[in-house]
Amino acid sequence: MTSRGTSRPAPAPPRPRPARGAALLTALLLLLVADVVPGRGPRAAAGPPAADVVPAVTASWTVPGGTLAVALTARPEPPGPTGRATDARDTRLAHRTADNGAAADRPFPTASMVKLFLAEDLLHRARAGLVTLGERDWALLQDMIRSSDDPAASELWTRFDGPQMVRDVADRYGLPGTAPPADPSQWGETTTTARDLARFLALLPTVAAPADATTLLVWMRTATPLAADGFDQRFGAFGTLPGMPAVKQGWMCCVDGVRHLHSVAVSGDRVVVLLSELPPSVSWDEARAALSAAAAALPAPRG
After folding, report:
1. 37, 38, 41, 161: which one has the fewest Cβ atoms less than 10 Å from its Cβ?
2. What value, to the nearest 5°, has the Cα angle with vertex 249 and ends 148 and 56?
3. Per the database record, which ranges form the Beta-lactamase class A catalytic domain (predicted)?
4. Nearest to 181 by CA among 193, 172, 169, 190
């Protein structure tokens, strides 16, 4: 997403799509090779404690007049079906999470981060039998995540009640700072916090069905270097963290006279969330370089 107006572009003309079965099989194989299937096989350790890393990340981002929100956490193991186990999971997650205080708790316009919520909720609805997704729908979901395709997001937002999808995800994952946009037609102005995004990605393998979490993480892991609109996605966590992190990138100009550039990732057991707000005088190239410098301060996960 590059501007406020891109929240509602006309759908792009249809183009050839891979069969759903073949695409999902390829995704599952890629994820197994990357050895990140939750609960199956070894996963990389999270590295140094998050609280030791956040100061280095924030110090590496220097943009006059800008704001950076940072949240880091380590994904918990599946808690089991009981409420007590879920409470214990949340306690462990809180102990393994660090952020930069008020900035991480401040609502930011999501830009394309909202696409993660839309994809998760549609996968959830389809599994519950509440909606039937056709082959085109699966292709739209994949394009929306991998190449941050705005027309795909606009179509799914309109057809499946995007504001309600945001509310449903916020309820299921316990995201108090996440809400639909004041103008329902502007999906990029959905609001969320760095803490909420870190919690969402950390809990994805335990709240979503394992196959749905796998599918979404693979789409993130195979993000395209250039977005559907030609924007270079190789900033922040993408192109900076080692290996093949599962990433989602977002950008938007301008809301309330400022640019927004965001990057989130699942790398090993670590979840990384970087949300930034910058004056319009800062170019996209400068903004990308600043967010990449912040991501570069993260030590590689051990393993």
Report:
1. 41
2. 175
3. 139-224
4. 190
- For tokens 């504001």, name the residue: 163
Q: What is the mean pLDDT of the chain?
A: 85
Q: What is the pTM (predicted TM-score) of this model?
A: 0.84
Beta bridge partners of residue 63, listed in sequence order? none
Q: What is the pLDDT of residues 104-150, one digit of tens each?
A: 999 999 999 999 999 999 999 999 999 999 999 999 999 999 999 99
Contact 122, 165 (CB under 8 A): yes
95 three-state secondary structure? helix
C-beta neighbour count of 86 within 10 angstroms: 16
Cα distances from 130 to residues 28, 57, 117, 160, 210, in angstroms, run: 24, 42, 17, 11, 18
Asked if omega into 253 is within 30° of 0 (cis), the reply is: no
How far is residue 241's CA from residue 299's CA, in Å, rounded to a whole number?
Answer: 9
Q: Are strands 108-109 and 246-255 parallel, antiparallel or unpaired?
A: unpaired
Check if the beta carbon of residue 195 is closer than 8 Å to that of residue 99.
yes
> In the chain, which residues have pLDDT < 50?
3, 5-22, 24-25, 27-46, 303
Radius of gyration of the chain (CA): 18
> In angstroms, rounded to a whole number, what is the distance separating the alpha carbons of residues 266 and 292?
16
Q: How far apart are CA 161 and CA 185, in angstroms?
A: 10
The first and second tokens of residue 263, run together, are 């990057």
State the pairing for strand pair 246-255/98-99.
unpaired
CB contact set of 129 (below 8 Å; sequence gap of 6+): none
pLDDT tens string 11-43: 444 444 444 444 544 544 444 444 444 443 334
Q: Which helix (H) or strand (E) holds 4?
A: none
